[in-house]
Specification:
Layout lengths: L2 H11 L1 E8 L2 E4 L7 E5 L2 E6 L4 H8 L2 E8 L6 E15 L6 E15 L5 E4 L1 H4 L8 H14 L1 H12 L8 E7 L3 E8 L2 E8 L7 H12 L5
Antiparallel strand pairs: 1-2, 1-5, 3-4, 4-7, 5-6, 6-7, 7-8, 9-10, 10-11
Length: about 220
C-alpha cells in the first residue's frame, strides 16, 4: 500500500487546521463557518450554514485548492485541487438546524513535505478503499469516545468489573485499532487497565463504530 497515500488520507481524516482557496480567494476554515468536515472515501465533504459562501461556491462549481495539516504530530500537509459541488440541504431531526452539504471532486493530490517538496499521489491510490480505515480515523474516533461518551465508558467498565458505576471515577480509551481497544479506569482502589478485542477486525469506519458499540453495549454516534 502506498505510504504517501496513507499519510495523506490520515491527514484528511483527522486535520488540525488548514486553508481553502476558492476561485483564487483564500479563506481560513474559521472564515467559512463550517459546521462539519469529513473524509468520504478521499472526497472532502463540508457541512456549512445555508446561504454561506461555501454553499454558493458549491452551486457555482467553483475551483478550489484545499491544504490541510494533520493532527497526528507529523509535519506533512496534504494539498488537494478540484471543484466544489453542492450536494444537498439537510436538517437535524432533533433541533431542526439546517445545513448545506458540499463535496469536493478531487482532481489532483500532493503530499507536501516539511522541506517544501510536493510529492504527487495518484488519485486511485489516494481513494483506495483500503485506506478508509486509516490512522486519522482511529485517532479521531478515540478522541470522540473519550470526549463525548464518558458516561457510556463508565457504564461499560462498571458492567465488566461488577462495580457500582458511581465507584468508577474516570475512564479513558488509550489505544484504538482495527482489532479492539485498550482502556484505563480509576476507582477507589487505584488505576487499572484492560483490553477488549472485537469479534472480528474492522475493515471500514462503519465496522469500527459497530465493533465499539458492541464492545461497550452502548448506542454511540
Amino acid at each position: 500500500m502506498d505510504s504517501t497515500a496513507s499519510t495523506a488520507r490520515s491527514i484528511l481524516s483527522c486535520p488540525r487546521g488548514g486553508n481553502v482557496v476558492i476561485d483564487g480567494i483564500p479563506y481560513t476554515m474559521a472564515e467559512l463557518e463550517m459546521q462539519g468536515f469529513a473524509d468520504d472515501g478521499g472526497r472532502p465533504t463540508f457541512l456549512c450554514p445555508p446561504e454561506q459562501r461555501l454553499a454558493y461556491a458549491g452551486r457555482r462549481g467553483s475551483h478550489v485548492v484545499l491544504v490541510m495539516q494533520g493532527a497526528l504530530g507529523g509535519s506533512e500537509a496534504v494539498r488537494l485541487t478540484g471543484t466544489l459541488r453542492w450536494l444537498r440541504t439537510d436538517a437535524c431531526t432533533c433541533c431542526e438546524t439546517e445545513w448545506e452539504e458540499v463535496v469536493m471532486d478531487v482532481a489532483n493530490v500532493m503530499l507536501v513535505r516539511p522541506d517544501g517538496e510536493a510529492v504527487p499521489i495518484p488519485l486511485d491510490a489516494f481513494t483506495d478503499r483500503g485506506l478508509d480505515l486509516n490512522d486519522g480515523v482511529l485517532h479521531r474516533n478515540q478522541d470522540h469516545l473519550n470526549n463525548h461518551h464518558p458516561d457510556e465508558l463508565r457504564d461499560a467498565v462498571a458492567t465488566r468489573t461488577y462495580l457500582p458505576v458511581d465507584s468508577i471515577l474516570a475512564t479513558q480509551i488509550t489505544s484504538l485499532s482495527a482489532d479492539g481497544f485498550e482502556f484505563q479506569w480509576v476507582d477507589e482502589h487505584g488505576a487499572h487497565s484492560a483490553h477488549t478485542t472485537f469479534d472480528r477486525p474492522a475493515r471500514t469506519p462503519e465496522d469500527l463504530v459497530a465493533g465499539v458499540r458492541k464492545a461497550l453495549a452502548a448506542e454511540i454516534c
